[in-house]
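Appendix B, Record 12. Input sequence as logged:
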Amino acid sequence: MDNSAPVALAPLTAGPAPASRRESAKFALRPFFCPLEPAIHPSVDAMESRCVGWLDRVRLHRDERQRARLVGTNSAEFYCRFAPSGDEASLEVAAHWVYWGFAFDDARCGRGELSADPSEFLTMAGLMQRALEAPWDPVCENDRFVTALQDIGRDFHRCATPVQVRRFTDAHRTWLFGVAWQLANRAHGRMPSLGEYTAMRLGSAGGPPTLAMLEIANGEEVPAAEMDSLVVRGLTEMAILVASWDNDLQSYAKEADEANTDQNLVNVLKAAHDWDTEQAVDEAYVLRDQVMSHFLQLRECRTRRPASRALHRYLEGLGHAIRGNIDWALGAPRYDDIDGIPAQSGPRHPLVGCTDQPTTHRAGPLPIPAIAWWWGLA
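Logged structural output:
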């Protein structure tokens, strides 16, 4: 499946797509295979109110429209679904980072000032990463993203263990590297192959730092021998990939309306095989459900073996993350209105929930080099 080479394209975000492409971009989302129960922290409303107060204090937004877009990410709800029984204070700090991440993505990654300049992005990202690693040092006091990130970093040092903080900062670096990889493709008008896109998406979607906060929010440190095992690493990557591919499908209709032909699982499959949107979406669901099925089987096998309470909670949290990401997207303006602000007339692209039935029962490892090793885990 992944024998296709990367495709050289016109600039990935330049100008509207041809009419034939715009017409073929319409499709109806289907329920996502996820036989896991929904859950959310009971204090979500109070935490959201306090998080909005934090946003107003750190001033990630420049005007009221940006503020509305940022509040409309529903980031407190997002992470309250990931850690429904988490420690409230720690969970709130994790939600702060999610708000920060969405604001940073909009301003400097997705379509912001550095979105097509990987060299400038890397210079900025290096300083940003160091600011997180040493949140007490004044790295760049006139950059609102630096000062807000350092505020979060200091809070993590207060509520998390040194090991948890290190895991989060390492995961944060992985994410920034993945974003730089994606921006480099965009700068060169290059659509990656499915294998390259899969490897890149494991970092660029923000999954590593988001899931690294699970044990912080839960207030329990997973022992290194468990967290660094191949099985737990594989399960973590599976959860990241399923959620990121779900986001690709959820956001594709909106991106098509914006004539955005950037890197997305659907666009990658279309470019590799010269498929129309419907064919690419069909295959995207099949690929996604194969990974989801394997995640469920492997997680069940791992939870039957002796493990720490912290690991059991972490593995449970991976499931909450997949299901929570789907449920959060149902009400997140980010996947509907172009500006991330709820449309007065209701959603333009209604999203769908979950089903207990997979799209496919196709078994066996996916022929994608970056992830084929997952099927050798036991």
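Confidence is low (pLDDT under 50) at residues 10-24, 340-348.
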